[in-house]
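Milestone 3.1: sequence recovery, worked example.
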């Protein structure tokens, strides 16, 4: 008699129970690169908000004031196209490095990888190496187990909260934020984002780890679309390594009809996503090259040639010549160079002055007692320079046009904005038509090169 199976049981059978991955610590050239990446990226993240630059926090995204300070440069919402350019550069850089050498971003620079490495380091310091962690998890609850688990999670949570605090410190001056926390006067929004970002760090890097890379990250799913047979990927040399089998160092593998792989499974034990690279390229592989480092250690101990697992291409595996500088890589490199160069040139030569002309649309024009035609405008000016400037305003485009405003001397402090109402008056005899194009020019009195011209329209009555 067949056992009764409910729909729930049938659905559950399609999913394997998650097994915790215990990555073994590994040393080698790629592990060194990964460690340097972690130190540089995390060091920059935690250190930069504390830097001061010309009286301001070096990097501060002041959303309420709509000012973005980045090492002496002040960006405004009007500079949004710079952000768009940065996003385009990031996209092309991802395409370029993926086409060239696979998931370099995932293995060395992705925030999930970087913070997971930090959490793994804390875990090893508290609970020991891989074998000790497995033994501790399988042991019954005891005072030692509880104390070590408590200490690990306490350090994880503390590190996560510091991460959340630093994140908010990029948007609220970090010194003010620290004072607010010290005096227990932290605002509701700052509290929310510190806890939210801290919780996300704790959950992603401490608990979910490889599950984020395998199930949540979309890059793992579409990366294959950017691969071709000349893309460098981490591969196991089946021709050389198989058949696998254990043996003594003094044994002749050829006499035993074995390949160079000793089937130690260390390449599986060091993998942060728990895959076996010997089964071929898999979308779960994040390209960290930990398996290359540990396999090279084993090959050195056995006096075998290194690179049983290595960065290679499908063409090389199939016995064909590899062409790394292929058209798609060259095109990505050219586009990256052009866009990056244009962005750098644009920022380095940008005029630290903004001028927006808003014409009063409620009234087309007004006739003054003197019989002149008058239009009203609102000028929005931003001084993006590091020092205050006095400016003069001039208008051209219509003969005899007069400017009516409170003062001819316009003072705008450094990094500040000014809204100025302006009226223009023209003798109707000088208006050739219903609408006439005019130009406003704003010039700094102490620096004539700091001058900006914007166009507008002057509206008058019909002349016939």
């Amino acid at each position: 008699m067949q056992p009764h199976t409910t729909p729930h049981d049938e659905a559950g059978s399609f999913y394997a129970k998650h097994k915790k991955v215990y990555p073994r610590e590994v040393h080698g050239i790629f592990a060194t690169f990964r460690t340097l990446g972690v130190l540089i990226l995390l060091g920059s993240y935690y250190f930069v908000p504390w830097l001061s630059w010309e009286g301001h926090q070096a990097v501060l995204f002041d959303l309420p004031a709509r000012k973005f300070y980045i090492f002496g440069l002040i960006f405004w919402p009007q500079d949004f196209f710079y952000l768009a350019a940065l996003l385009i550069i990031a996209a092309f850089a991802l395409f370029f490095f993926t086409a060239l050498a696979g998931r370099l971003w995932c293995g060395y620079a992705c925030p999930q990888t970087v913070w997971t490495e930090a959490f793994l380091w804390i875990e090893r310091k508290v609970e020991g190496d891989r074998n000790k962690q497995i033994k501790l998890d399988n042991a019954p609850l005891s005072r030692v187990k509880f104390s070590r688990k408590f200490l690990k999670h306490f350090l994880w949570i503390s590190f996560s909260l510091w991460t959340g605090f630093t994140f908010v410190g990029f948007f609220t001056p970090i010194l003010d934020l620290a004072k607010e926390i010290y005096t227990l006067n932290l605002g509701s929004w700052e509290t929310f984002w510190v806890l939210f970002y801290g919780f996300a760090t704790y959950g992603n890097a401490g608990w979910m780890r490889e599950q984020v890379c395998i199930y949540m990250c979309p890059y793992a799913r579409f990366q294959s679309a950017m691969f071709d047979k000349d893309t460098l990927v981490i591969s196991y040399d089946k021709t050389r390594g198989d058949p696998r089998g254990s043996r003594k160092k003094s044994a002749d593998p050829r006499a035993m009809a074995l390949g160079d792989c000793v089937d130690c499974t260390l390449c599986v034990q060091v993998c942060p996503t728990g895959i076996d690279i010997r089964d071929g390229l898999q979308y779960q592989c994040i390209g960290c090259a930990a398996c290359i480092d540990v396999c090279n250690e084993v090959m050195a101990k056995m006096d075998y040639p290194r690179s049983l697992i290595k960065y290679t291409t499908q063409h090389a595996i199939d016995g064909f010549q590899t062409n790394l500088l292929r058209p798609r890589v060259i095109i990505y490199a050219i586009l990256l160079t052009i866009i990056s160069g244009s962005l750098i040139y644009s920022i380095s030569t940008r005029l630290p002055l903004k001028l927006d002309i808003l014409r009063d649309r409620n009234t087309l024009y007004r006739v003054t007692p003197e019989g002149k035609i008058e239009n009203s405008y609102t000028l929005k000016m931003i001084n993006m320079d590091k020092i205050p400037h006095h400016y003069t305003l001039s208008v051209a485009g219509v003969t005899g046009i007069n400017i009516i405003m409170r003062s001819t001397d316009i003072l705008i402090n450094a990094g500040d904005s000014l809204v100025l109402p302006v009226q223009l008056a023209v003798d109707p005899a000088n208006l050739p038509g219903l609408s006439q194009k005019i130009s406003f020019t704003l010039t700094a009195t102490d620096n004539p090169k700091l001058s900006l011209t914007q166009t507008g329209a002057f509206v008058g009555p019909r002349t016939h």
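The chain has a mean pLDDT of 90. Residues 143-169 form the longest helix (27 residues).
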